[in-house]
Amino acid sequence: MAMKKITNSFMEPASQHVFEAAISNLRMIKTGGSGRWGPSEKAPLRTIPSDDYEKNGKAAHPIYAELFWVWEITADRPKKKTATSETFQVTGLASVRVRIKHSGDKTTLAEWRAEVGAVDSPGSYFHSHITDHVCVPRIPTLFVTPMDTLEFVLGELFQRRWPAVATREKDDVLFWRSTQSKLLSQVLEWKRKKIAKGTGSPWVALKHAKPEEMDTLFCQRK
């Protein structure tokens, strides 16, 4: 996983083991099975503390982020019996949770989820959910995968350092940049088409939009 290498200097050492476990878990599912993918709340990805989240270093105190997720997925059947699947279907819960914490007393300062809605979801299909006490607001988001969300978090916490790393001309960064450019372009184009084909309020059209097989949102049909 490219992000494991790219983010190494931004993460606590234990997070490398969390990455490795998540990669191993995904590889097992890709052999043709199904399961819950992602690190647990008790063993999340955790960034190092940062005071670079305010302009000109005016942060009141260092903070750090924890990130964990549950994606219930089923691997697509590979064309060859000896091959592993390169794609999968989201067949259940798809939720990433982020917690921003004070690096001193470890209190939670902010928390949200980035989620893929169900087919009958009353909100935007890709949305962020900011509280457990009430299900609204469901804020539309571009962040689809756990690694999308991780990059967003790193860009917020490390205002100077992350852009410097994310623009380097190294293989892992170039690979991540290429895949993310394709993903974001597909999501944006999908949203644009849903708005263009809708009637009435553009927001209502987008709010009610759900992926269909003909959309080929992430995978091209052959």
Secondary structure elements and their pairing?
Layout: H1 2-6, H2 14-30, E1 34-37, E2 45-46, E3 63-75, E4 88-102, E5 108-116, E6 126-129, E7 138-140, H3 146-157, H4 161-166, H5 171-197, H6 202-208
Antiparallel strand pairs: 1-3, 2-3, 3-4, 4-5, 5-6, 6-7
Explain how this protein is built.
By secondary structure, this protein is an alpha+beta fold. The protein has one domain (2-169). It has helices at residues 2-6, 14-30, 146-157, 161-166, 171-197, 202-208; strands at residues 34-37, 45-46, 63-75, 88-102, 108-116, 126-129, 138-140. Strands 1, 2, 3, 4, 5, 6 and 7 form a seven-stranded antiparallel β-sheet that branches. The longest helix is centred in the last third of the chain and has 27 residues, at 171-197.
Mean of all residue-level pLDDT scores? 86
Succession of helices and strands: HHEEEEEEEHHHH
SS content category = alpha+beta
Strand percent estimate: 15-25%
* Alpha carbon gyration radius: 18 Å
- The quaternary state of the protein chains shown equals single chain
Low-confidence stretches: none
Terminus-to-terminus distance? 26 Å
Main pleated sheet: 7 strands, antiparallel
* Number of spatially distinct domains: 1
Number of strands: 7
Features of the shown structure:
single chain, about 220 residues, alpha+beta
Question: Quick summary of this structure?
Answer:
The chain has six helices and seven strands.
